[in-house]
């Protein structure tokens, strides 16, 4: 066997290994899109039906929870098809979904503390911060990828502002005056924001060339994109459905206390 033939054989072997690895993660990614789609649909049906079994004051909150998962279901249906047909990450569709659902998740904080005196100013602060977080994240992930670290830092600053509002800011102060049930619900939602939403920066780090302050964690860009989608899909299911279940638990617990 000549040296040229040997090198060609080794090269082909390495290519096969890389392709197999990528195919494996692509299969996992497709599976998480499918599961995410079904989970969001099931959650939407549950929230819409249970909305009529809770006290009237919580129905709007539960309706918003159902809208969040329903919007996500519609987008996951298209994202699943897009990924299956092209093998690419449906980044645009994902950010459209987030631009609609994440501000609605912030609206939940306003709705459950409204009885304790929450003002529209708080609502707009939460929505504005969430939009800044998403727009800068999209810019860093798609348009200005060469400066993804900068855009990621700006997005992270908006995220931590939301964390502060829920942890020690207006949301926390209002929740403390709204009764033990609301205070407990806000505390649980805070952990969703602090830990659950932290999943998204991980996906951003995996899928952008800037990585972790310049360190690219996954060298293969195609595999990095696939890993990013898996992280995002898990994050969406945990956070969007989890948010709704916390609101539902709050509504049920206050109804039982009243009875």
Write the layout of secondary structure elements.
Blueprint: H1 3-50, H2 59-86, H3 91-113, H4 120-143, H5 148-167, H6 170-176, H7 180-196, H8 199-207, H9 221-258
List keywords for this structure.
9 helices; globular; 259 residues; mainly alpha; Rhopdopsin 7-helix transmembrane proteins; disordered N terminus
Which fold name corresponds to the CATH topology? Answer: Rhopdopsin 7-helix transmembrane proteins
In CATH, the architecture is Up-down Bundle
Structural class: mainly alpha
SSE pattern: HHHHHHHHH
Number of helices: 9
Radius of gyration: 21 Å
**Biggest β-sheet description:** none
When the domains are counted, the total is: 1
Report the uncertain regions: 1-22
Top-tier CATH class: Mainly Alpha
Q: What is the approximate shape?
A: globular
Instruction: State mean pLDDT (0 to 100 scale).
Output: 85
CATH superfamily: Rhodopsin 7-helix transmembrane proteins
Q: What does this entry show, briefly?
A:
By secondary structure, this protein is mainly α. The protein has helices at residues 3-50, 59-86, 91-113, 120-143, 148-167, 170-176, 180-196, 199-207, 221-258.
Task: Explain this structure.
This protein has 259 residues and is mainly alpha-helical. Helix content is 83%, strand content 0%. It has nine helices and no strands. Helix 2 runs antiparallel to helix 3 (91-113), helix 3 packs antiparallel against helix 4 and helix 6 (170-176) packs antiparallel against helix 7. The longest helix is centred in the N-terminal third of the chain and has 48 residues, at 3-50. The radius of gyration is 21 Å and the shape is globular.
């Amino acid at each position: 066997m000549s040296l040229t033939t040997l090198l060609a054989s080794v090269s082909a072997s390495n290519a096969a290994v890389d392709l197999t690895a990528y195919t494996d993660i692509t299969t996992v990614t497709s599976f998480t899109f499918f599961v995410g789609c079904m989970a969001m649909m099931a959650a939407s049906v549950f929230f819409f039906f249970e909305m009529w079994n809770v006290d009237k004051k919580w129905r709007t909150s539960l309706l918003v929870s159902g809208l969040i998962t329903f919007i996500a279901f519609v987008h996951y249906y298209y994202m699943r098809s897009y990924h299956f047909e092209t093998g690419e990450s449906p980044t645009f569709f994902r950010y459209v979904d987030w631009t609609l659902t994440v501000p609605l998740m912030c609206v939940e904080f306003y709705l459950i503390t409204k009885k304790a005196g929450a003002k529209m100013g708080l609502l707009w602060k939460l929505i504005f911060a969430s939009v800044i977080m998403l727009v800068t994240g999209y810019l860093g992930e798609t348009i200005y990828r060469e400066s993804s670290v900068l855009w990621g830092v700006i997005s992270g600053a908006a995220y931590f502002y939301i964390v502060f509002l829920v942890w020690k800011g207006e949301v926390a102060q209002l929740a403390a005056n709204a009764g033990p049930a609301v205070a407990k619900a806000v505390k649980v939602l805070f952990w969703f924001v602090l830990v659950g939403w932290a999943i998204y920066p991980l996906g951003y780090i995996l899928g952008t060339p800037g990585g972790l302050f310049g360190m690219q964690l996954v060298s293969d860009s195609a595999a990095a994109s696939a890993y990013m989608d898996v992280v995002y899909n898990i994050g969406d299911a945990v956070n969007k459905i989890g948010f709704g279940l916390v609101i539902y638990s709050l509504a049920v617990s206050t109804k039982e206390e009243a009875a």
